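[recover] target loaded
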C-alpha cells in the first residue's frame, strides 16, 4: 500500500496556490508544512506532498510504501541496497515527522527517492 507521494516543484508558491485550489473540492488541505518550502495535503493525515527538491537539480518523485513493522522496513532497505539502490537514509526513527516514524530511504536507478515506513510503535 502507498503511504505517501511527494513531488518536487520548481516554483513552490505557484504550486502551492495551484494545489490549494485544485485539491479543495476533494476535501484535501495542507495539514503540515510551511509557506516557503514544503506542504503536506490530506484529510485526516498528509499523504500528498509538494516541495522544493533538496540538493537536486531537477524534481524527482518520492514514493513511500507502508511497511507492516520495523523489521519490514529493515528488510526493504537491505533488499533495495542489494538490488543496486543507493542509500538515502538507513532504517531508523525520524522524530522530525512524528515520534514513531520509522523509515528507510533509497535512490532507485532513475534517481527517485523510494521509502518504506512504519508508523507503529516498536
Amino acid at each position: 500500500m502507498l503511504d505517501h507521494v511527494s513531488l518536487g516543484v520548481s516554483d513552490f508558491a505557484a504550486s502551492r496556490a495551484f494545489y490549494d485550489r485544485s485539491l479543495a473540492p476533494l476535501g484535501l488541505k495542507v495539514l503540515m508544512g510551511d509557506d516557503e518550502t514544503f506542504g503536506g495535503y490530506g484529510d485526516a493525515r498528509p499523504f500528498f506532498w509538494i516541495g522544493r527538491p533538496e540538493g537536486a537539480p531537477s524534481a524527482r518523485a518520492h514514493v513511500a510504501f507502508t511497511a507492516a513493522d520495523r523489521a519490514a522496513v529493515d528488510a526493504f532497505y537491505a533488499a533495495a541496497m542489494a538490488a543496486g539502490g543507493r542509500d538515502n537514509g538507513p532504517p531508523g526513527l525520524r522524530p522530525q515527522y512524528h515520534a514513531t516514524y520509522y523509515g528507510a530511504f533509497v535512490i532507485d536507478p532513475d534517481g527517485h527517492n523510494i521509502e518504506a515506513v512504519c508508523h507503529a510503535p516498536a
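[recover] notes: The radius of gyration is 15 Å.
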